[in-house]
Hints:
heterodimer, A: alpha/beta, Rossmann fold, GMP Synthetase, Chain A, domain 3, seven-stranded mixed beta sheet, five-stranded mixed beta sheet, 19 helices, 33% helix, disordered C terminus, B: mainly alpha, Na+/H+ antiporter like fold, 13 helices, globular
Amino acid sequence: MSIVELDALVESRATPLSMPVPLPARHIAELVETTCARYARQHAFTAVLPNGMYGNLKFDQVAQYTDQVAAYLRVELGLAVGDRVAVQLPNSLAYPLWSFGALKAGCVLVNMNPLYTIPEMVHQLNDSGARVLVLVDLFADKLPEVVAQTKVEHVVLVRITDLFPRLIGFIAHNIMKYWNRIIPACTVPVTTGLEAMAKGEAILRDGKADIHSYTADFGPDTLAALQYTGGTTGVSKGAMLTHGNLLANIAQIEERVAGNVEHGKETALAVLPLYHIFAFTANLLYFFHAGARNILVASPRPLSNLQRAIENYPVSWIPGVNTLFNGILNEEWFTDYPPPQLKGSIAGGTSLHAAVAERWEKVTGSPVIEGYGLTESSPVVTLNPFVGSRAGSIGRPVLGTEVRLLDVFGEDAAPGEAGELAVRGPQVMLGYWQRPDETALTLRDGWLLTGDVAQQDADGFLRIVDRKKDLIIVSGFNVYPNEVEDCIARLEGVSEVAVIGVPDAKSGEAVKAFIVPRNGATITADQVREHCRASITGYKVPKSVEIRSELPKTNVGKVLRRALRDEAHQPVAERTLGGTNG
Amino acid sequence: MVSQTEQLLLALMIGVIMLGMGSSLTWRDFRRAFKRPQAILIGFASQYVLMPLIGFLLAIVLQLPPPLAVGLILIASMPGGSTSNIFTYFSKGDLALSVTMTTFSTLAAFVMTPVAILLYASRFMTSEISVGMGSVISGLFVMLIPVIIGMFIRRRNANVGAVLELIGGIMGVVIILVLILSWVPRNASLLATTPWQVYVAAAGIGAIGFFFGLITATLSKLGFRRSATVSLETGIQNGPLALSIVLLSFTGAIANDIVLIPVLYSLFIVIISSGVTMIYRRINNQLQQRTVALL
């Protein structure tokens, strides 16, 4: 897609907004620069390894190093405005440098999950047309095949320990290489992250780069990132997020937490991967903008990897997802001594179970505020207020954001009735990259169709009833899996639960629950049904219950009901504890 | 026996190891250990009630001659050794609990060890056994001071702490290997002339201690991680303390007889602990929460 076509797209979606959202900067490069100048000598990022080894970046270092990255990309590699740079890194010091650096260079950032398989990488690299791939060395063994099948011209290979103190980085790198043996040999020509930055530094020293000129004519409608998502149709496609989309979302989050986030004084835990839109906007953009110190954890698997990060730093904010909060609550070191400075947690990504929220607030003594968003909306659409947050609600729409609830005919649902949530606001994407058909299915007259069914209270608070396609219809009655899951999650001994509909001869569909018990707990199907009957109507009670050791999940811990439904077509009879009554 | 310089070197190495162990700890870990005093109490009970009893019964079942029986009861009545902390660390157990238990049992040794010896050893021998308190104190210092220094270092700079922890860990493996490899050639003639009952007693006291420590703690619902910690604490005794008590209390041929089981114990316990630690480590690893791969 050319820039001219993009401009046409920008104009076509131009619908008047109900309320303008004041943007904190003209574009992200400017935001990075002003933020770095404001908090110069404070810590911006600290990467913590499971054994407690760490590396720091101060704000002024972020400014300096991102300039080097930008100079390297533009002068050394010869990239132009709008060229795509794929960044495929776990949470590490290199992540902010390469993502911000690419944006400073006027390039378009393509975030990629480091755990992607070769075909997934090839698809995303070809679809986005990325010319440069910035990859973590842990997956260098995928390069020969990937490079051969894509148009990637340059590969920058970075280490998790890049920019750590020299000796610490050396020790940590060699532990990973020779003891853990997780760093494979690299057989294709690459530039290392540090070499690239050194080249950028030399270019800047020789006065061969004018960083400001790269983004001089950028505005809110300039494309900033291609954020890949399955969306509602399942095909992996790039949501086109503009500088304005992302900046608006920063302002929208700011308005909702105003007064509770003290600029320049917070410590935010970045345990969700930054390549994912939630942590990207919450940690990398919002908390960075707020002058917070982001504590970067590369992998919370096992969860004990988080222990040193939480023990050694005064964590005051934790953005997370249901699975993460639930998992942390099962860690004794956390529940015995929850971080004393914790002010609040932000839940998104997937619905937060009421049982988890209640326990989290009880254990940490601080609120968890639930929000709602999608990749296509940068992501935040609604967020609860810090004070007066409502359990089970995703809050009210954020500043400058309009919502509608649509019935099956695409008309506004009656007040108080559930309907498909449609969103309009400055954070809504331009469309999907080079996929007008997919865009047309999702964006209608400036309204983003979310595929989620929601209900709204008289005072504007929204509640997600469920995904439109996850709805279970039992003998004509609607059953929303979320409600059943929420109920089962309250049963003693339940660690995780997922509920889906399975074909049933008598009722059309029947409710089926998959349960992962807590360590050492035993749960029977009868127990589950008895527990459910006490609080939900009979037709919603699971007809069958399957006990599992794990549930299929996405990379941010969303339970994949679709994968469970696919399996259900070839049921494994011996694992099912299913009964007969419903 | 080991020479003076070797002993000093050994103490120094243990000091470095304990510095590393301390670097992995925070005050919170100790507060957590005290939050569940039942673990400390169960550790205490298995250390001073279970172990001397096992030693006594083993001496009777194996029909050991009196000097050997006294040696066995002596080793069974000792407080926990600081090597238990190293093995607990490697097994991914509750290190703070282990250090706490070792400290408590060492302090309690002033009363409990003479009581246990009086209770069980007097049946085999009437001569007075003097328990040398000096070495108990110095042993405790060797263990605790570097631990506390390590904790402070980690607080000041987590990077230095992590490096010390790593060095301590490597040193721990080295010392275990050195102990095992140097012991056998050094005591080859002793090994060749020792009857099988003595082997069974010297190896069995540690192994049975591990087993019953684990069972008692598990029955008390401490959870696997803490039960494994109690188990290691119960089975691993302060061997050097037993040796010094023998040397202080006896001379001549009888001293050589009494010292035999404590000396053999010191060899076997390192070997058995290494094996048990590997098993515990594997189980502790499996019990860690595997959340979704978020990387």
